[in-house]
């Protein structure tokens, strides 16, 4: 393992928290936590790193033998592959067919193997990521000596990643003044880990969980009426004070607004979080922190397909961005990070 590899892992977390100029409401500031500054481009670097390290401590992983298998619609897959590569483990990602082409290319270029699940493969289990969870579990059951599934939907290390890193960072970066925290929900690791930490510091902090509409196009997030509630979230669901459902059209409008007003090129879930955040800020006092999970680079094809940005706007965006993602630059740049 070279010096560069270790360096990229030591850059996990410690992401910037920036004030937004967008109308924040009468009293209080609005901040965005820019998670695409993580080395593999999203908040999932934290969960992946914590889960791998915990499994190493438990003796579940054997270098050169173990294959990590994980269901993921994108960011967890990218993070696991990038980190495992550096630590000497192979990774297979079970990914829904509907995941973006950019994400699939990136996982493969980082050295991961993809198993795509077709929509009708496990019809009893539900839709989207639920199918990939079932497939990954079935594979582990058949080959337990070979495969390890860290299972981000149940793994306490996913919660701990945010309890031990994201929560303390937000507390410190706001000088203990955060009063509202708004985030999307995939496994529930982010919301429960951050909520637990912030509420221990100040029981008055309010926590908002953002859900997309049923049948949404926002990768990484789940609507709990159409997808099962992950165990990780179920264990601590009481930490969520309010659920906010955001329509896709409002999420994408906020993506556009952030590009125009803040020179931030965000992923769709950050648009949903931003829309919810504006509502929270307009009705409350005190500092609001919005979690921006990833940037828009891997969603260019989705934005083009949906007409969120014109081809000319898309072309111009990365050059305009004030807060360019660290390694999450063009795919060609990221794939050179491969060992
Ligand atoms: C793209 C994306 N993935 C995942 C999450 C949440 O992750 P989790 O609930 O699994 O910690 C978010 C939260 O905003 C997100 O935007």
Question: In words, what does this structure look like?
Answer:
The protein is 43% helix and 15% strand. The protein is an alpha/beta fold and 339 residues long. The strands form two sheets. It has a six-stranded mixed β-sheet with strand order 1-2-10-7-8-9, sandwiched between helices. A four-stranded parallel β-sheet has the order 5-4-3-6, sandwiched between helices. The N and C termini lie close together (9 Å). The C terminus is likely disordered. Bound molecules: pyridoxal-5'-phosphate (PLP). Pyridoxal-5'-phosphate binds next to strand 7, helix 7 and helix 10.
Keywords, separated by commas or semicolons:
339 residues; alpha/beta; 6-stranded mixed β-sheet; 4-stranded parallel β-sheet; 10 strands; binds pyridoxal-5'-phosphate
How many angstroms does the end-to-end distance come to? 9 Å
Structural class, judged by helices and strands? Answer: alpha/beta
**Percentage of helical residues?**
40-55%
Number of beta strands: 10
Within the largest sheet, what's the order of strands? Answer: 1-2-10-7-8-9
DSSP helical segment count = 13
In this entry the ligands are:
pyridoxal-5'-phosphate
Anisotropy-based shape: globular
* Proportion in β-strands: 15-25%
Give the mean pLDDT. 86
Backbone CA Rg = 19 Å
Low-confidence stretches: 122-126, 324-339
> Which oligomeric state applies?
single chain
Following the backbone from N to C, one meets helices and strands in this order, namely HEEHEHEHEHEHEHEHEHHEHHH
Biggest pleated-sheet summary: 6 strands, mixed
């Amino acid at each position: 393992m070279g010096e560069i590899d270790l360096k990229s892992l030591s850059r996990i977390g410690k992401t910037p928290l920036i004030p937004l100029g967008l109308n924040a409401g009468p009293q209080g500031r609005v901040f965005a936590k820019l998670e695409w500054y993580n080395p593999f481009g999203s908040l999932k670097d934290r969960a992946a790193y914590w889960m791998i390290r915990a499994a190493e401590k438990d003796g579940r992983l054997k270098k050169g033998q173990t294959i990590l298998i994980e269901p993921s619609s994108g960011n967890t897959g990218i993070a696991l592959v990038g980190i495992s590569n550096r630590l000497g483990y192979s990774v297979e990602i079970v990914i829904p067919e509907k995941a973006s082409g950019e994400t699939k290319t990136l996982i493969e270029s980082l050295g991961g193997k993809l198993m795509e699940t077709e929509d009708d493969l496990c019809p009893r289990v539900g839709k989207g990521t639920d199918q990939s969870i079932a497939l990954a579990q079935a594979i582990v059951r058949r080959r337990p000596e070979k495969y390890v599934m860290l299972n981000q939907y149940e793994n306490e290390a996913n919660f701990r990643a945010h309890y031990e890193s994201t929560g303390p960072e937000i507390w410190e970066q706001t000088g203990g003044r955060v009063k509202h925290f708004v985030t999307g929900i995939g496994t529930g690791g982010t919301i429960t880990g951050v909520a637990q930490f912030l509420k221990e510091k100040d029981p008055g902090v309010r926590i908002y969980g953002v859900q997309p509409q049923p049948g949404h196009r926002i990768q990484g997030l789940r609507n709990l009426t159409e997808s099962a509630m992950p165990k990780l979230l179920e264990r601590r669901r009481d930490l969520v004070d309010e659920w906010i459902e955001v329509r896709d059209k409002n999420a994408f409008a906020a993506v556009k607004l952030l590009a125009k007003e803040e020179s931030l090129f965000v992923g769709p879930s950050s648009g949903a979080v931003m829309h919810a955040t504006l509502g929270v800020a307009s009705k409350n006092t005190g500092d609001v922190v919005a979690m921006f999970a990833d940037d828009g680079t891997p969603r260019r094809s989705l934005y083009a397909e949906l007409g969120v940005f014109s081809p000319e706007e898309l072309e111009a965006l990365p050059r305009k961005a004030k807060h360019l993602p660290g390694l999450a630059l063009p795919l060609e740049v990221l794939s050179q990070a491969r060992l």
